[in-house]
Amino acid sequence: MPLITTSDYRPPAHLWNGHLQTIIPALFRKVSVAYTRERIETPDDDFLDLDWSFAEVKTGPPGGDELTILSHGLEGDSRRQYLAGMVRHLNGGGFDCLAWHYRSCSGEMNRQARFYHLGETGDLQVVINHALAKGYRHINLMGFSAGGNVTLKYLGEQGTAIHPAIEKAVVFSVPLHLTTASRRLEAWDSQVYNKRFNRTLKRKVFEKAALMPGAIPTEGLQKVRTLREFDNLFTSQLHGFRDAEDYYEQSSALQYLDKIAIPTLIVNAKNDPFLSRECFPEELARQLPNVWMEFPTQGGHCGFAPAGPNKTVYWSEERALRFLKNDAVQ
């Protein structure tokens, strides 16, 4: 306990492996959410863009409505299908939603000579503080992939000192052990993902370097072919780590799980092409009092498409709402 040994997720028949379960929803699912954009300033004179979407029917007590803060994946944003679909479903379940963007991910380049990384929890704290200042007193955290790592690391860092308004957390497709997950992405069958990340990340670096001459190193960047190489040459150096290994070692959420003090659900599919075997720590799960882990055999990476005909709500969305609403947690 609390390892959930059986999962009720079943994929549609036409998505028979982890790659199809990852790629088809990302390419072909279209979810529209009417967000309200808000920009807030950070303590270091930068900005974060927040997208708000409000519940159809308020279910929280007067002055204390329920809010879910959602953190997207690497190079994602609030309009990715996995996040927008979740927002739509949570709105229908009575939750206001705040989907925030990491620096450089909202469509406008951030101001400082830095970006974001998978161990950066300070910006999440800024977002939480902003929500608290608005009067929210029942807050849940949710993260996808990279955003799941950030969320779990934040919860572990806070431990028992976490603000009492933060009540539960749910994360999906999380690279809990960054070193081995980065190696998994270098496997032959995951090169398509490596290439995609490298293309968008390198484009951002060159864009910022043009805006801030001399402040952003670009030497050797064109030769980078994997996410690990990018993190070694750029992410680690720009954000104060020795190298990629140091960055991964300090930032991996796995080492923070035993310090989490609120009910938290981690859902990682066994056929996720982004995740290594270290991202499925079953023995650890049995020892943790506050962290539930569920490892469906199918689902892909931020996939979890429904099997039913004409069904628009994804299993991950139903699973998350069930966890947030259920007093018995599971």
Could you walk me through the main structural features you see in this protein, from its secondary elements to its overall organization?
The protein folds into 2 domains: 3-176 and 256-325, Rossmann fold, CATH 3.40.50; 178-251, no CATH class. Helix content is 34%, strand content 15%. It has helices spanning 18-28, 81-92, 122-133, 146-158, 178-185, 191-211, 227-238, 244-251, 282-285, 315-325, and strands at residues 3-4, 36-41, 47-53, 66-71, 96-100, 138-144, 166-172, 264-267, 291-294. The protein has a 9-stranded mixed β-sheet with strand order 1-9-8-7-6-4-5-3-2, sandwiched between helices. Helix 7 crosses helix 8 (244-251). Belongs to the AB hydrolase superfamily. AB hydrolase 4 family. The active site is at 145 (charge relay system), 272 (charge relay system), 301 (charge relay system). InterPro entries: AB_hydrolase_1, AB_hydrolase_4_CS, AB_hydrolase_4_sf, AB_hydrolase_fold, ABHD4.
Helical stretch tally: 10
Here the CATH topology of the largest domain equals: Rossmann fold
Gross CATH architecture of the largest domain: 3-Layer(aba) Sandwich
In CATH, the homologous superfamily of the largest domain goes by the name: Alpha/Beta hydrolase fold, catalytic domain
Detail the poorly predicted runs. Answer: none
Please count the beta strands (DSSP E, at least 2 residues each): 9
Strand content: 5-15%
Q: According to CATH, what is the class of the largest domain?
A: Alpha Beta
Helix-residue proportion:
25-40%
Which structural category fits the helices and strands?
A: alpha/beta
Rg calculated over all Cα atoms: 19 Å
> Strand count, sense and closure of the main sheet?
9 strands, mixed
Mean of the pLDDT scores? Answer: 94
